[in-house]
Design a protein that fits this description.
The complex is a heterotetramer. Chain A is mostly helical. Chain A contains 14 helices and two strands; from the N terminus they run ααααββαααααααααα. In chain A, strands 1-2 form a two-stranded antiparallel ribbon. The mean pLDDT of chain A is about 80. Chain B is an alpha/beta fold. Chain B is globular and about 70 Å long. Classes of the chains: A mainly alpha, B alpha/beta, C mainly alpha, D alpha+beta.
Chain lengths: ~325, ~525, ~280, ~525
C-alpha cells in the first residue's frame, strides 16, 4: 500500500516535471537562431518568400510565441507530441519507430555493464590489495578515462575492419529479411560493438562503486556477526556483504539507466544505430522543434520511469524503506 | 574443569599504532558454568583478546605469542577451516551494538537458521523449529512474528536477545559477550544481564563477559580480570576484587564510579534561574499527500524550576524526552506550547532576532566530545565567537577565553590549537569553557559525561562540581545514569515518555521514591545492591 | 593528510602527469610560436619520420605536436572553468537547501531533480547548438549539466554537518544563520567538494571532447576533442591524428581521477579503499 | 549543341550495342547522406531526396553528360523556331506504380498546379510560361510569354518531377498520406523506409522501357558517420559511394582497393561551384580592394591539392568551365600575398576582424575554412571562424549576418538557371540562402544578365555571357574558390551506373552488375 501510494505521488510529480521540461525546452529551442522554415526551404535547393511564408504558416510559426507554446502544452497534456513537418509524420510515430532500437541498445549495455561491473567489483574486493585487484582497478580507471567515441572508433577498426568478426554498424543486415531466431541473432551480432563501447564506461563506474561498497560493508558489525556464526568467506560475501553492498550501486545504476536512453547520441552516431539519440541530433540541425521536444520528453519520461522502477525494486529489496517514512 | 585457558597471550598491533602490543602476556582461565568478567577502559585490549579467540582480529593485528587452549587444542593456530567450524558451534559471541550487528536485509529467523546452515545441521524445517524454540528461550514475544521480522522492526533489547538466540543455537561451551549491554537502557540492561545469568545456569556454559562497568561486574561476575593498556593488573574472585581491590588502578576505577553516595543536600534558594511551565513539543512525521500524520509527544506538559545555584538532574531512558526538553529550554527546538522563563524573559516567545540577542543567557554542554567542536576552527574562535557577537570587545573576550582554559585545566596555550589535538575529556573541558565564556544564567549539560571512560568521567564531574561552587552555577544536568545524577545534583527529575514522573531531592528520589517507574529505574541500576552496601559501609 | 596523500602511489603518479600536462600547456606558445593552425609541412606526414615534427602533421600539414600542446590549454581551461561555474551554481544552492530545509530545500531539490531528469548529454548538445559553439557556450553547457550532483552532495553534507553539536553551540553563541552556514558548516564540507571537483574537471574534459567530436567544438580553439573530431574521418589512413589526442585525453583524465581518488582517501580516511580496520 | 532548332531525338541505336553483355538481377547498396527528410520529390528537392526519388519519379527529359537532352517520359519533343512553343510527345503505355495510367493530364497538373505551389526554383522558370495544355493524352504543349534560353534544361527529374494527379489533385499536398509511400513512374518502386537505417526500392516490372531496369532492388543506406561510410564500403556492405559521401582524404585509399573504380562524371548538370560570399554591404568586405586582396591572399591551388585532394578545378569566375557559356578571358587571381598586402595597405585596412562562416557539411569544409583563415591571417587580416550548424548557416546567410560565408551552388546547365540568381539586384532578398546573398548591385550587368537569358541565339548568348564574366571578375562580388568535383566510387563490376549529367540520381535505371 505504501509503495503504491509512493508510486502514485511520484507519477503525479513526474507529470509536472515533464510539463516543465516541455516548457523550458520550448523556450530554449525557440531562442535558438535558425528558423525551421528557412532550413527546410534552404534544403530544397531554392527558396523564395512565398515558400518560406507557406512553410511558416504550415508549422504554425506565424503565430505569436505564447500561442505556439500554449498549443504545444495543450497537446502534450493530451499525449500529442505534435507533428514533424520535416519528416512528414507525427512525432510520436517517429519516436515509436526509433525507440525500440535505443531501448535494445541501452538496456543491453546497461545490464552488461551492471552485471560485469558488479561481478568484477566483487572479484576485486575479494582480492583487495593483491596484484589482480590492482590490475582490475587500473583497468577500470582506464576505461573510465577513455572517451567513449574513441573507444568506439578503435573497436570498429579492430573488430570490424581488421578482424572482420562483427559488423561495423547498423541495426541488422539490411535486406537479409531474417525472421524469428535468425533475426534475433543478426541483431545481436550488430549489437555487440555498440553495446560494449557504451557499456564499457559504465562497467568501470559500477565496478569501482561495487568494490568500494563491498569494502565498506565488509567492515560492518553484522559481517563480524556472520563470521562469528562460523560462516565461510564466500557465504559471507554472497549472503551478507553483497546484498547490502549492491543496494547503492543498483540505485545509482537505475538513475543512470534513464539517462542512457537520451545519452546514447555518440554511440548511435558512430554505429549508425537508428535510435532516438541520433534522431534528436539530426533534428537539431534541422530545427525540427517538435521532434527534439518529443525526444526530450520521451527520454525524460524514461528517466522518471527508471527512477520509479528503481524505487520499487529498492522497496522490495530493502524492507526498511517502506516502513521508514 | 577449565573450558578455556589462555596462556601468556600477546597480540601485536600494526606499525604506526600508539603502542606495539594490544595485549601483552595475558593469561586467564574460565571454568565451566562460570562468568569471567574482563574489565577495562577503552584501549585496554579486552576486546582484542576476545577477537583473537574467535579468529576475528582486524587485518594487520596478529597473535605474537601465547596460546589459548579450548577443548584440548590451541585455537589460536588452528587452520582457518577448523576455526570456522569452531565459531558459532563451540564458541559463540555477541557484540555491543545490537543496532548494527544484525544484517538489516535478512529476517531474524533466517539469521538464526543460518547458524545451523553454516555448520550443516538439520533440515530447513527443523532449523525453523529450532529457531522458534530459541526465540522463545531468550524471551522474545510472539516468536512466529519475530521469526519473520527484519531487525529494524525490533527494539534494541529485542535485537540483543535475537543475537543471544543466535549465539546459543548450537549450545556452545563458551559464550563471549563483548559489552553486550552498553548500548542499552538501564532497565533493558538489567533484563539482558538476567537472561545471561539464567542461561548460564540452565546450560552450564562458560561466559567471558567484557565490560567497562563495575556495576555490571558486581551484578554477574564470578571471576574478574582487570586490564589496562594490554596488561592484566588484577585478577580474582569478584567479591574480593570489588570489596578489596589490591591494585591502584582498580582502586581508582572503583573510586571513579559514581557510587550513589549521596552528597549532603543543599538548601535550594527560591530565586529561579529557569522556570519551565507547561512545556509541550510534539513531533509529527509522515503527513504526505496520502499519509496519516503520526504524532510523538516528546515533551508533554512539563513544568519545573531550576533555582539559582542549583543543579537539577533530569533523568530518563532513551526516548523519554529529556534531551528534547533540554533543547527546547535553550530554544534549539521551538516548543509547541508553554513558557521557558530565564531571568524574566520567556525564551519560547521570542522572535528569531530577539532570541539571538538573548541566547547568551542559557548555554549548553553537549554529549559528543567529537561533534561538539568545529574541527576547522581553533579553540580561541570557539570560545570568543559568542562573546564577541554579544558585544564583548575582542581583546577582552580573548583574555577571558585564556582565563577559562586555565580554569578548566587546559592551560591558556590551548587557545591556538585545533580540536583534533585534544582527547575526549579535554574536549569536554573546552565545551564547558565555551559555555562559561558566555556568562550564562543557566547551563544545560546534555549527557555531558556519558561518552567518556569512567576515570575521565569522574574528572569532568569533579570539574563541574568545582565550577559550580566557584561561579555559583545553575545547571540542568541531563543524564540517563542515575548514579551520575546522584553525585552532582541537588534535586532529580525523572521523565518517562515525555512526561515528568517525579521530582524531588536526591535523598527523596533514592531513598523514598514515590513512583513505580522511579523504583524500576533504581532497581535496574547495575550493581545497585552492591553499591548501596558499600554506601552503607 | 598530505602525508597520507603522498604515500598513495596512484595519486602521486596522477600529480606528476597533471603537472606535466599543465607545463606543456604553459610553454606551448614558447615551443610553437606559430600557433596550432600554421600549415608547416606536407599533409599526412607520418609520425617519427621528421625530427622537427615528431608526431607528424594533419590533413592540412599542421604540426600535431603543436596542436596537442595548445589543445592542453583549451582542454584544461574548459575543464577548470566549467567546474568552477558548476560549483558556483551547485554549492550555494545545495548549501541553502541543506541548511534551511523546509520550503527552500523542497524548491531547490525540485529544481535540481528537474535538471537531472533531462538527459545530460542531450541537453549539453542542445545548449551548445543553440548558443552556437564557442568556448563560452561549451563551458556554460557543461556547467549547466554538471551542477546537480554538486548541489546534492553539498546538501547532504550540509545536512549532516548541520546536525552536529558544534552548530548548536554556534547557534547558542548567538551567531546569525548565514554566518553559521558560512563559517561553521561550509568549511566542514570542503573535503568532499574538492574530491568531487577534481573528478568533475576530468568529466568536463571528456564532455568537451565528446561535443567537439560531434562537431560542436569551438573552431577557433584547438582542443583535443576537436582534433579527434577532425581526424575521425581519416582514422584509417592517419591513425595518429586521433590516436595522440585520444591518449592525451586518457592521460589527463586518468591523472585527475587518480588525484581525486587520492584526495578522497586522504580526506575521508574512514572510507579508505585499502580496507584497513 | 544547338537544340533550339527543331529537333527530334530518338533512342540512339548505339545504346543497343552493349546490351548483349548486360546481366539482369542483383542488388545495389548505395550510401545516401544525409537521410532525406522525405521522398516526395515534388515537395522536397534537397540532394538526398533527388538521389533516391530520382529512381521513383521521372521528368520529361534526361540529360547526357554533355547536357544534351534525352528522352525521359517524353519520347520526343519539338521546339518552335521562335523559341516560344515546346511540344512533348509522351511515351505510350506508361503506368504509375499503383497501376493507374500516366497521361498528359498528369504533366499539366504537375507543372501548372502542383509544382507552381511547391517548387520555388522551378517557379522562377515557370514565370516565363504562359500556358501548359494537354493536346491529347500523350501530347503536352508549353507556351512561353517570351523566349527563355535555358528552358529546355528545366525538364530534369529534380527540377520538374511529374507527380500523380489522381493522388494529389484537390488535397493538401504537404500532409497527403501518399507522401509516405511515393508513387511515380520510374524504374524502381518504393518498398520500405526503415527510418535511420535504409530505404528499399524494388524493380518496377512494368517499366515502359523494354529490358530496364536490370537490377532487382536498390538499398539506399543511411550511415551518419563519414568514417563508417568508408568502412561500409571497405567491408562490402555498400557498393556505391556517391560523390561527397566520404571525405576526400579517404578517396585515394578507397579507390586503390582491388576492383574499385571511380568517376568524376555525373555532376555536369549540377556543376557545383564553390565560393565565399563577401558581404558587399558593410565592413571591410564592402571595399572592392579588400575583396581583391582576399582573392590574392588565397592559395587556391593548395586548397585544391590538399583540402580537396586534387579533385576539381580552381574557379576563374562565376560560370563553371563544365557548363556552356564558360569564358576564360578574365582576370586571373593567383596566390600573391604581397599584392594582397599592397591592396590592403592601399585601402587602409585597420585590422577590423572578419568572420568566416564555414559550410557545416563535414570536415572537408571545416578544414577549408581553417585554410582560408590561415591564408588571410598571413596577409594580416584578422579572421575568426563562426561555428554553426546547418540551421544556423541558413539563418545567418539568409539574414546576411556574416562577413565571409562559404557556399556552393548548382548551375543547372545554364547560367540563367544557376548563375545569375546570385548576382542580380532583383535577387537580393532576405530569407533565402540561394540568391544574391552578398548584396552585389550592378544595374548595367543586371540588364545584361536579363538579356542573355531571353536571347534565342546561342552564339549571342555565349558572347554576352563572356562579357559579363570579364566585368564581374574584376568586381569580385564573391571570392570564387573551386569548381567542385565529387568522385563517385563504386565496384568495377557495376556497369553503366553513371551515364547522365545527374549521375547516380538516375543511375540505377541503366546500371547492371556483372557476376
Amino acid at each position: 500500500m505504501d509503495t503504491f501510494i509512493a508510486v502514485l505521488s511520484r507519477i503525479a510529480k513526474a507529470v509536472l516535471t515533464l510539463l516543465a521540461i516541455a516548457v523550458l525546452n520550448f523556450f530554449l529551442l525557440h531562442a535558438a537562431p535558425g528558423d525551421p522554415a528557412v532550413v527546410l526551404a534552404g534544403e530544397a535547393g531554392a527558396a523564395d518568400e512565398q515558400m518560406i511564408a507557406q512553410l511558416r504558416e504550415r508549422f504554425g510559426l506565424d503565430q505569436p510565441f505564447y500561442v505556439q507554446l500554449g498549443k504545444y502544452v495543450w497537446g502534450i497534456m493530451q499525449f500529442d507530441l505534435g507533428y514533424s513537418f520535416r519528416q512528414g509524420m507525427p512525432v510520436s510515430q517517429l519516436i515509436m519507430e526509433r525507440l525500440p532500437a535505443t531501448l535494445i541498445l541501452t538496456l543491453t549495455a546497461f545490464f552488461i555493464s551492471l552485471g560485469m561491473g558488479i561481478w568484477l567489483g566483487v572479484a576485486a574486493s575479494a582480492r583487495v590489495g593483491r596484484a589482480s585487484d590492482s590490475l582490475l582497478t587500473t583497468l577500470a580507471l582506464l576505461f573510465y578515462a577513455t572517451p567513449l567515441y574513441w573507444a568506439a572508433l578503435m573497436a570498429v577498426l579492430v573488430f570490424s575492419v581488421w578482424l572482420g568478426w562483427l559488423p561495423a554498424f547498423g541495426f541488422e543486415t539490411v535486406g537479409a529479411n531474417y525472421t524469428g531466431l535468425a533475426r534475433v541473432l543478426d541483431i545481436a551480432k550488430h549489437l555487440v560493438l555498440p553495446a560494449l563501447t557504451l557499456g564499457l564506461f559504465f562497467m568501470a563506474v559500477y565496478m569501482r562503486m561495487t568494490r568500494a561498497s563491498m569494502l565498506e560493508v565488509s567492515q560492518m558489525d553484522f559481517v563480524k556477526t556472520a563470521k562469528a556464526k562460523g560462516l565461510g568467506g564466500a557465504a559471507i560475501r554472497r549472503r551478507h556483504i553483497l546484498r547490502n553492498a549492491i543496494l547503492p550501486v543498483v540505485t545509482l545504476a537505475g538513475l543512470q539507466a534513464g539517462q542512457l536512453v537520451g545519452g546514447a547520441v555518440l554511440t548511435e552516431t558512430v554505429f549508425a544505430w537508428p535510435g532516438i539519440g541520433r534522431l534528436m541530433f539530426e533534428s537539431l540541425a534541422a530545427r525540427d522543434y517538435n521532434t527534439i521536444l518529443g525526444v526530450f520528453i520521451v527520454s525524460a519520461a524514461m528517466v522518471i520511469l527508471f527512477n520509479i522502477i528503481t524505487d520499487i525494486v529498492y522497496r522490495i529489496v530493502d524492507p526498511r524503506i517502506g516502513a521508514r517514512s | 574443569m577449565s573450558t578455556l585457558v589462555i596462556d601468556h597471550l600477546s597480540i601485536g598491533l600494526p606499525e604506526g599504532a600508539d603502542r606495539p602490543l594490544a595485549v601483552e602476556d595475558v593469561s586467564m582461565a574460565i571454568e565451566m558454568g562460570q562468568i569471567l568478567c574482563v574489565v577495562g577502559e577503552s584501549g585496554s585490549g579486552k576486546s582484542m583478546t576476545a577477537n583473537a579467540l574467535m579468529g576475528l582480529l582486524p587485518p594487520g593485528v596478529t597473535v605474537e605469542a601465547g596460546k589459548a587452549v579450548f577443548n584440548g587444542q590451541n585455537v589460536l593456530d588452528l587452520p582457518e577451516s577448523r576455526k570456522q567450524a569452531l565459531r558459532g558451534a563451540e564458541i559463540a559471541m555477541i557484540f555491543q551494538e545490537p543496532m548494527t550487528a544484525l544484517n538489516p536485509l535478512m529476517r531474524i529467523g533466517d539469521q538464526i537458521a543460518e547458524v545451523f546452515a553454516a555448520h550443516d545441521r538439520f533440515t530447513p524445517s527443523e532449523r525453523r523449529e529450532k529457531a522458534l524454540h530459541l526465540i522463545r528461550e531468550v524471551g522474545l514475544p510472539d516468536p512466529e512474528k519475530i521469526i519473520r521480522a527484519y531487525p529494524f522492526q525490533l527494539s534494541g533489547g529485542q535485537r540483543q536477545r535475537a543475537m543471544i538466540a543466535m549465539a546459543l543455537a548450537l549450545e556452545p561451551k563458551l559464550l563471549i559477550a563483548d559489552e553486550p549491554t552498553t548500548a542499552l537502557d538501564v532497565t533493558t540492561q538489567a533484563q539482558i544481564l538476567k537472561l545471561i545469568l539464567d542461561l548460564r545456569d540452565r546450560r552450564g556454559m562458560a561466559v567471558m563477559f567484557i565490560t567497562h562497568d563495575f556495576g555490571v561486574v558486581a551484578e554477574i561476575a564470578d571471576q574478574v580480570i582487570v586490564m589496562r593498556e594490554g596488561k592484566v593488573v588484577e585478577r580474582g574472585v569478584a567479591a574480593d576484587v570489588l570489596g578489596n581491590p589490591q591494585h591502584d588502578y582498580t582502586r581508582r576505577l572503583l573510586d571513579a564510579i559514581p557510587t550513589g553516595k549521596l552528597p549532603a543536600a543543599r538548601a535550594p534558594r527560591d530565586v529561579p534561574a529557569l522556570e519551565i511551565k507547561g512545556l509541550r513539543k510534539i513531533y509529527r512525521t509522515g503527513g504526505g499527500l496520502f499519509k496519516p500524520v503520526r504524532e510523538v509527544r516528546a515533551v508533554d506538559d512539563v513544568s519545573l524550576t531550576v533555582a539559582r545555584g542549583e543543579v537539577l538532574g533530569l533523568v530518563g531512558e532513551s526516548g523519554s524526552g529529556k534531551s528534547t526538553l533540554g533543547r527546547t529550554a535553550v530554544r534549539l527546538v521551538t516548543p509547541d506550547g508553554g513558557q521557558v522563563m530565564v531571568g524574566g524573559t520567556d525564551l519560547a516567545a521570542l522572535s528569531d532576532e530577539e532570541l539571538r540577542r538573548e541566547r547568551h543567557k542559557v548555554q549548553m554542554v553537549f554529549q559528543d566530545p567529537y561533534a561538539s567542536l568545529n574541527p576547522r576552527q581553533r579553540i580561541m574562535g570557539a570560545l570568543t565567537d559568542g562573546p564577541i557577537t554579544k558585544g564583548v570587545p575582542k581583546a577582552r573576550a580573548q583574555e577571558r577565553a585564556r582565563e577559562l582554559l586555565e580554569i578548566v585545566g587546559l592551560g591558556a596555550e590551548a587557545a591556538s590549537r585545533y580540536p583534533h589535538e585534544f582527547s575526549g575529556g579535554q574536549r569536554q573541558r573546552i565545551g564547558i569553557a565555551r559555555a562559561l565564556a558566555m556568562d550564562p544564567e543557566l547551563i544545560i549539560a546534555d549527557e555531558a559525561v556519558s561518552a567518556l571512560d569512567v576515570s575521565i568521567q569522574a574528572q569532568v564531574l569533579d570539574l563541574l562540581r568545582d565550577l559550580r561552587e566557584r561561579f555559583d552555577l545553575s545547571i540542568l544536568f541531563i543524564t540517563h545514569d542515575l548514579r551520575v545524577a546522584a553525585q552532582l545534583c541537588d534535586r532529580i527529575a525523572v521523565m518517562q515518555k515525555g512526561r515528568l514522573v517525579e521530582i524531588g531531592t536526591v535523598h527523596d528520589i533514592f531513598l523514598a521514591p514515590q513512583q513505580d517507574y522511579t523504583r524500576q529505574l533504581l532497581a535496574a541500576v547495575p550493581g545497585a545492591g552492591w553499591s548501596q552496601e558499600s554506601a552503607g559501609a | 593528510m598530505w602525508k597520507r596523500f603522498a604515500s598513495n602511489i596512484g595519486a602521486m603518479v596522477g600529480v606528476v602527469l597533471l603537472i606535466a600536462v599543465i607545463a606543456i600547456a604553459i610553454i606551448a606558445p614558447m615551443l610553437y610560436p606559430g600557433g596550432p593552425w600554421q600549415m608547416v609541412q606536407r599533409p599526412f606526414l607520418v609520425p617519427f619520420t621528421m625530427e622537427a615534427y615528431p608526431l607528424g602533421t594533419d590533413t592540412l600539414g599542421r604540426n600535431v605536436a603543436a596542436q596537442l600542446a595548445y589543445g592542453a590549454q583549451v582542454s584544461l581551461l574548459v575543464g577548470l572553468v566549467s567546474t568552477l561555474v558548476a560549483l558556483l551554481i551547485g554549492v550555494p544552492l545545495g548549501a541553502v537547501a541543506g541548511f534551511y530545509g523546509g520550503l527552500a530545500d523542497e524548491g531547490a531539490m525540485r529544481f535540481t531533480e528537474f535538471f537531472q531528469t533531462i538527459p545530460n548529454f542531450a541537453l549539453a548538445i542542445v545548449l551548445v547548438a543553440i548558443f552556437q559553439p564557442n568556448l563560452t557556450s561549451i563551458i556554460l553547457a557543461i556547467a549547466i549539466v554538471s551542477w546537480p550532483p554538486v548541489a546534492r552532495l553539498v546538501r547532504a553534507e550540509v545536512m549532516s554537518v548541520r546536525k552536529r553539536e558544534f552548530v548548536d553551540a554556534a547557534t547558542l553563541a548567538g551567531l546569525s544563520k548565514p554566518r553559521i552556514l558560512i563559517t561553521q558548516v561550509l568549511p566542514n564540507t570542503v573535503s568532499p567538494i574538492i574530491v568531487m571537483a577534481s573528478l568533475m574537471v576530468a568529466t568536463a574534459i571528456l564532455l568537451e571532447s565528446s561535443l567537439s567530436f560531434l562537431g560542436l567544438g569551438d573552431p577557433n580553439a584547438m582542443s583535443w576533442g576537436y582534433m579527434i573530431g577532425a581526424a575521425r574521418t581519416v582514422i584509417r589512413s592517419a591513425w595518429w591524428l586521433s590516436f595522440f589526442p585520444g591518449v592525451a585525453i586518457i592521460i589527463t583524465v586518468l591523472a585527475l581521477n587518480l588525484i581525486g581518488e587520492g584526495l578522497n582517501d586522504a580526506l575521508n580516511p574512514h572510507l579508505s579503499r585499502k580496507g584497513r580496520a | 549543341m544547338n537544340f533550339l532548332k527543331t529537333t527530334t531525338f530518338l533512342v540512339a541505336a548505339a545504346l543497343a550495342a552493349p546490351l548483349a553483355a548486360q546481366q539482369d538481377g542483383g542488388r545495389l547498396d548505395i550510401v545516401v547522406q544525409p537521410e532525406p527528410p522525405g521522398l516526395m520529390l515534388g515537395l522536397v528537392q534537397n540532394g538526398p531526396t533527388q538521389m533516391v526519388a530520382g529512381d521513383i519519379y521521372e521528368g520529361l527529359l534526361r540529360y547526357d553528360t554533355d547536357l544534351n537532352p534525352m528522352p525521359g517520359l517524353a519520347e520526343s519533343w519539338t521546339i518552335s523556331d521562335d523559341g516560344l512553343t515546346y511540344t512533348f510527345k509522351l511515351h505510350d503505355g506508361v503506368k504509375w506504380h499503383d497501376g493507374e495510367d500516366f497521361t498528359a493530364d498528369d504533366v499539366v497538373f504537375s507543372a501548372d498546379v502542383f509544382l507552381r505551389e511547391t517548387h520555388a526554383r522551378l517557379r522562377a522558370s515557370l514565370a516565363y510560361v504562359d500556358t501548359i495544355t494537354a493536346i491529347d493524352p500523350l501530347t503536352v504543349e508549353f507556351k512561353l510569354k517570351e523566349p527563355f534560353g535555358p528552358f529546355i534544361s528545366v525538364f530534369e527529374t529534380g527540377t520538374m518531377p511529374i507527380v500523380p494527379k489522381h493522388l494529389y489533385e484537390g488535397t493538401d499536398y504537404a500532409t497527403n498520406e501518399a507522401n509516405a509511400t511515393p508513387i511515380g513512374t520510374g524504374p524502381f518502386k518504393f518498398d520500405k523506409w526503415e527510418k535511420g537505417s535504409f530505404i528499399h526500392l524494388v524493380k518496377n516490372e512494368d517499366y515502359y522501357v523494354e529490358g530496364l531496369p536490370h537490377l532487382d532492388e536498390v538499398y539506399y543506406r543511411v550511415i551518419p558517420d563519414a568514417a563508417s561510410r568508408a568502412v561500409a564500403f571497405e567491408t562490402g556492405e555498400v557498393d556505391v559511394l556517391p560523390g561527397g559521401s566520404v571525405e576526400n582524404w579517404d578517396v585515394p585509399r578507397l579507390t586503390a582497393m582491388d576492383g574499385v573504380c571511380s568517376t568524376g562524371k555525373g555532376w555536369e548538370f549540377f556543376a557545383p561551384h564553390a565560393w565565399m560570399w563577401m558581404n558587399n554591404r558593410e565592413g571591410p568586405t564592402a571595399n572592392q580592394k579588400f575583396r581583391q586582396a582576399v582573392m590574392y591572399a588565397l592559395d587556391r591551388d593548395f586548397m585544391k591539392d590538399v583540402v580537396w585532394n586534387g579533385f576539381g578545378n580552381v574557379a576563374t569566375g562565376p560560370v563553371s568551365s563544365k557548363t556552356n557559356f564558360y569564358s576564360d578571358d578574365v582576370t586571373i587571381y593567383d596566390h600573391n600575398p604581397d599584392k594582397a598586402k599592397a591592396l590592403l595597405a592601399e585601402m587602409g585596412y585597420d585590422g577590423e576582424p572578419v568572420r568566416v562562416l564555414p559550410l557545416p557539411y563535414g570536415e572537408t569544409w571545416q578544414r577549408w575554412a581553417e585554410a582560408v583563415r590561415q591564408n588571410l591571417a598571413e596577409v594580416g587580416i584578422n579572421v575568426e571562424i563562426d561555428s554553426t550548424d546547418v540551421a544556423g548557416w541558413n539563418e545567418k546567410t539568409a539574414n546576411w549576418d556574416y562577413d565571409l560565408a562559404f557556399t556552393y551552388l548548382y548551375q543547372y546547365g545554364d547560367p540563367a538557371l544557376g548563375v545569375s540568381r546570385n548576382y542580380t539586384a532583383d535577387r537580393i532578398k532576405k530569407g533565402s540562402p540561394w540568391n544574391n546573398v552578398e548584396g552585389y548591385e550592378n544595374p548595367e550587368l543586371d540588364a545584361k544578365w536579363a538579356k542573355a537569358a531571353t536571347l534565342v541565339s546561342a552564339d549571342e548568348r555565349t558572347a554576352l555571357y563572356a562579357e559579363i564574366q570579364k566585368e564581374i571578375v574584376d568586381d569580385v562580388p564573391v571570392a570564387w574558390l573551386m569548381e567542385l568535383e565529387f568522385p563517385t566510387i563504386y565496384r568495377c563490376n557495376i556497369h553503366d551506373l553513371v551515364t547522365t549529367g545527374i549521375g547516380v540520381n538516375d543511375g540505377p535505371r541503366n546500371a547492371w552488375i556483372e557476376e
